[in-house]
TrEMBL record:
<feature type="domain" description="Pyruvate/ketoisovalerate oxidoreductase catalytic">
    <location>
        <begin position="13"/>
        <end position="100"/>
    </location>
</feature>
<protein>
    <submittedName>
        <fullName>Indolepyruvate ferredoxin oxidoreductase beta subunit</fullName>
    </submittedName>
</protein>
<dbReference type="Pfam" id="PF01558">
    <property type="entry name" value="POR"/>
</dbReference>
<dbReference type="InterPro" id="IPR002869">
    <property type="entry name" value="Pyrv_flavodox_OxRed_cen"/>
</dbReference>
<dbReference type="GO" id="GO:0016903">
    <property type="term" value="F:oxidoreductase activity, acting on the aldehyde or oxo group of donors"/>
</dbReference>
<keyword id="KW-0670">Pyruvate</keyword>
<dbReference type="InterPro" id="IPR019752">
    <property type="entry name" value="Pyrv/ketoisovalerate_OxRed_cat"/>
</dbReference>
<keyword id="KW-0560">Oxidoreductase</keyword>
<dbReference type="InterPro" id="IPR052198">
    <property type="entry name" value="IorB_Oxidoreductase"/>
</dbReference>
<feature type="domain" description="Pyruvate/ketoisovalerate oxidoreductase catalytic">
    <location>
        <begin position="109"/>
        <end position="156"/>
    </location>
</feature>
Amino acid sequence: MTQVINVVVAGLGGQGVVKASDVLADAAFRCGLDVKKSEIHGMSQRGGSVASDVRFGPHVHSPMIPTGQADFLVVVAPDQVDVNRHVLKAGGLLVSPASLEKVPGKLQAKSINVALLGVLSRSLEIPLEIWEDAIRGCFPEKHHRLNLEAFEQGRQAVAG
């Protein structure tokens, strides 16, 4: 990887936005990349908007992604797509719950954030085993199976 990748993860409080950004940041770090992360919580304890910027690459100067410069926008809540679309650069990729329409099997609501990371993983140069290690590292052992399955379901939703 020769350039900095900018990813915004957005949604509502309680949907695992921060946890998803933690997994992404951990996966990039496990690849030996420089990683910076920032969060805006707003009224997140009451279901308000939450966004987290994750930047990674050979060398990252700032944790904040300039408006209109996100390579990827991962949105956990469908009603937050239009609210956050302005952060995505022209030609950037939107990953939203609509990306999961072809998920094989039943997807639990509490693991949609990780399923969306599975979708995102198809567009990033991070090996599958690194993603799996990051998921195991960010969740208690009792939640490993659920989240690993959700991640794989997200990957399968966009399998080519």
